[in-house]
Amino acid sequence: MTDAEWSRLHPLVRPTTRGRPPADLRRTWDAIFWIALSGRPWKDLPEHLGKPDTAHRALRRFAAEPRRLLRLLIEVADHPHDPWPAMRYRVCRAFRRVCRVVPLEITLAAERLGLRDALPCEPADLPRPHLSEKAARYVFLWPWLHRLPPLRRWYDVIHRMMRGNYRAWRTR
Fold first, then answer.
1. What pLDDT sits at residue 122?
2. How many CB atoms lie within 10 A of CB 20?
3. Same structural domain, 67 and 110
4. Are residues 167 and 143 in the same domain?
5. Are residues 94 and 31 in the same domain?
6. Separation between Cα atoms, residue 104 and residue 77, nearest integer Å
C-alpha cells in the first residue's frame, strides 16, 4: 500500500478504544489485504506481515462495527470525482472474507453502492427484504390464491425472491 493510500485509509480504520491497538496498524492492514487478494488461508501469511491471528482478529473487530464498515464501503464506492480503484478492490475482497459475520443490511448496502466484488454471491441470490412490504399489500388475497393459479405463482415468486438463495450468500 502506498503512503497516499494509507494516509487516506488510516482515518477510516483507526482502532477504537476497545482492546490493545496493533503495534503497526499499517502492516496489519497490509496483511489483511494480502490475504484478501491471495485467497489463501490465514496460516499462509508471510512472516514479514506479522502474525495471522493479529490480522484476522483486527478484521473481525472491524467487521463487528457495521457503521465503520459501511463508512469504509461508501468511501471506496465509485465516485465520479474521486476514483480509487486499487483500494476499492482490496476493500471489497477483504469484505468478502467477513461477509458471513456482518449484518445483511451491510451486504445489501454494498450491492446498492455497486460494489459487486464485495458480494458473497450473485446479486440475484441475495435476499430482498423490501419485497415483503409489497407482498404484505396483497395478504388479503391469501384465501383466494388457491382459486387463482397465476396470482398464486406470482406470490410464490415474490416469496422466493425475498428469501434469496441462502446457500449461495451465506456459506461462501
1. 85
2. 6
3. yes
4. yes
5. yes
6. 18
What is the C-alpha separation between 125 and 138, in angstroms, rounded?
24
Distances (CA, A) of 23 to 27, 49, 51, 55, 170: 9, 12, 11, 11, 33
> Residues 42, 56: contact at Cβ < 8 Å?
yes
Average pLDDT, the chain: 81
Based on the domain organization, do 24 and 106 belong to the same domain? yes
Residue type at 76? Answer: V
Query: Whole domain around residue 48: which residue ranges?
Result: 3-120
Closest CA relative to residue 36, chosen from 21, 49, 17: 49
Separation of CA 71 from chain center: 12
**119 is written with which cell numbers?**
458480494
Tell whether 131 and 92 lie within a shared domain: no
CB 89 within 8 A of CB 36: no
Q: Are residues 63 and 33 in the same domain?
A: yes
Count of C-beta atoms within a 10 Å radius of residue 33: 23
- Summarised one tens digit per residue, pLDDT across range 48-60 is 999 999 899 889 8
pLDDT, tens digit (0-9, with 9 covering 90-100), for 31-85: 999 999 998 999 999 999 999 998 998 898 888 888 999 999 988 887 666 667 7
